[in-house]
Each structure stands twice: as C-alpha cells, then as structure tokens.
Amino acid sequence: MKRMKRTAVLLAALLLLPTAARARMPLKAHIREDGRNSYTAAASKLTELPVLSPGEIRKTSTVVIYPEEFFPAETQEPVTVILPGRGQGKTEAPEETPEETPPEAPTETPPEAPPEEESQDYLPQEKPAEPVPPAQPARKEAETPAFPEAEDWQLLLVNPWNELPEGYQVTLKSLPDGQKVDERIYDDLAAMLAACREAGLNPKVCSAYRTQSKQTYLYNNKIARLRNAGYSKAAAIEEAGRWVARPGTSEHQLGLALDIVSSSYQALTKKQEKTAEQKWLMEHCWEYGFILRYPSDKGEITGIGYEPWHYRYVGREVALDIRESGLCLEEYLLLREETRSEGTNWI
User: Fold this and answer.
1) Is residue 203 scored above 90 in pLDDT?
2) pTM
3) Which terminal residue of the chain has fewer beta carbons within 10 Å of its beta carbon, N or C?
4) 8-state DSSP, 39
5) What angle do CA 4, 6, 11 make, to 5 degrees?
6) What is the rounded CA–CA span in Å between residue 292 and residue 288?
7) Which helix H or strand E contains 205, and what residues bound it?
8) Which residues lie closer than 8 Å to 33 by C-beta, 6 or more apart?
9) What is each CA distance from 220 to 162, 193, 216, in whole angstroms?
10) Residues 244-251: what's their mean pLDDT?
C-alpha cells in the first residue's frame, strides 16, 4: 500500500515538472504523516511526461529529464528529480538564479586639493648611519714587566708541599729583644715597628727565626697536646700541621717571617685581629714590604689556618702588588710564573 502511495506521488511530481521548470519555481512532492498525498506546483497546466512503471521506480531514486525533449528551447535546462523511497522524502528543484543587482551609479570624485608645499618629511630620507662604538685600545706589550722585579730569596716559597731548600743558609741579625731575622729585612722591619709605635700602639715580636730543632719541638708539642685532648695519632698530626708547620716547611726557618702580637693581648687566637696593633699592621704592612701570609679565606691554598699575627717579607713592590691583587702568596707566584712563561706581560 505504501509503495502505491509513493508511486502515485512520484508520477504526480513528474507530471508537474514541466510547468515548474518553465516558471523557474520549485516543485515539491511528499507524503504527509497522515498518509495523504500533498502536492505543490508553480503552474496549473501540465505537460505529458513519460510514465515510469513501478519496477523502474524501484530500480532508481533519481531521474534526470532533459528539457530539449519536452520543453521549448528557451527553458533548456536539465532538471533532476529525486525519487522518494530511498531515504529522500522530497524532490529537489533547480537552484534559483539570483536577480542581478543594477550597477551602482558612479560616485563623483571630488577635485584634488592643490598640492601643498613639499615638506622634508616627504622627501626620501637617507638612513642614518648606525653609531659606531669607540674602538677598544689594542693591548700593547708593556715596556716594563707587569710584575715587579724581585730577588729570588724574597719570593722563596715554603709551605706543606715545598720544603726548605737543601743547604739553605741565612745571615741573621738580632732585634733589641734578642729575636733574630734575616739581616736583609732588618731595616724594613725596624721601620714598620717604629711607625706602629709612633701611632700610639705597642707591637711585640713573639717569634722570629727558628732553627730546625726549635721547629721540631714546637711541632711535636702541638701533636702531644692534641693527643691529650682526645685526638687519634693520625688526626693529631693532621690538625697540628694546620697550625704549626712540619719541620723543614716553616717560613720561620727562612728568617723572613715573624709573629707579631699586641703587648696587651699576646694569645695566638683569632681575637688577635681585633687588637689595635693588628688592625694597624694589616693596613700598613705592605708599605714596608710585608704581607699577612695566611689570610682567613685562603687556608685550602696555603695549607695553614688563618693566622692574623703571621707576617712575611717579600719586598715593598711585590707586597703592594699582592695587596692590590687580593691573592695569597701561592696564587700570586703561580700567576707570575705562568705569565712570565708566556714571554709577554700585558698592560
């Protein structure tokens, strides 16, 4: 029954097609939900069209009708009809041709204003040259060495890794209190102590030149005291070496080093740095050729802990150079050697 209804709808759509095509209007045919056929057409007159049998309708869902067979020449356009029954439910109509929009009237262009005087802004501008940074002055070879000249004995390095040279000889000179130093540093040392006293202070040399036997006694005594404090033998030896140099590695054996303390506080502790005498010496020792040999932040390099009382003579020019560099003696000598080995000093 439903097939018969769909066939009737299809035949009706095909009968109405020529009229709809002439009128350029869509043709619709579908089955309403209540089962009745509903048709709409754009014309009342129909032209006979070929009738499809039910068998042919079942075999196709789309029929293309070429107008030249059924319509006058002025409506020569193919029309495609989508047959219901294959999920379509309605026929499609040819697309409507949109009406042409009449061209807009040309807009009158207002007369151009008289050209103004040419401004420099409209003239071609040359791209300004980019500023050239000032040329860095070329490094030139120094006419004189960057490192001050010094005698070998002034820069002799003795530390836990560098022992006193074999057969080392030193000419000593006694201080007023009986302490002895290398005679080559005597005048500068005396001048430094005198200047410190003139500043109203009272420095005291508590240790100067030491013999091998004297250094051995001090070293062993330090180990014994550490053992009594509970250190193992190995730990005591290691700790003692941080404060008392192993015999043969002490600068005191050179006659170039001495311990200076305040007469009012003679303990060899960190508090020594707070005394007025040490503050003055740290500030002015370089003027007389001395350096603070074991700074607080260089223990890993020097191998000796911080000693704010131990001063070493290196000569006035080298002492100034070390002060300005912020290096300890080990660092300074290494840099000096590397620079000189390259054969050039730069300034």
Assistant:
1) yes
2) 0.58
3) N
4) E
5) 95
6) 12
7) strand 203-207
8) none
9) 20, 31, 6
10) 95
What are the residues facing 65 on neighbouring strands?
79
126 is catalytic: no
> Is 291 strand, coil or helix?
strand
- For the record, the structure tokens of 302 come out as 């020097």
- Assigned token pair, 51: 């009738």
Distance CA 118, CA 47 (A): 77
Measured CA to CA, the distance from residue 343 to residue 335 in angstroms comes to: 13
Q: What is the pLDDT of residue 14?
A: 54
Q: Is 334 helix (H, G, I), strand (E, B) or coil?
A: helix
Q: How does residue 164 score in pLDDT terms, banded at 50, 70 and 90?
A: very high
Residue 217 identity (one-letter amino acid): Y
- pLDDT recorded at residue 53: 53
Q: Is the pLDDT of residue 89 over 80?
A: no
Say how many Å lie between the first and final Cα of the chain, rounded. Answer: 113
Q: Among 33, 116, 307, 330, which one carries the catalytic annotation?
A: 307
Range in 93-97, 147-151, 273-277 the model is least confident about: 93-97
Which tokens belong to 253? 């054996």
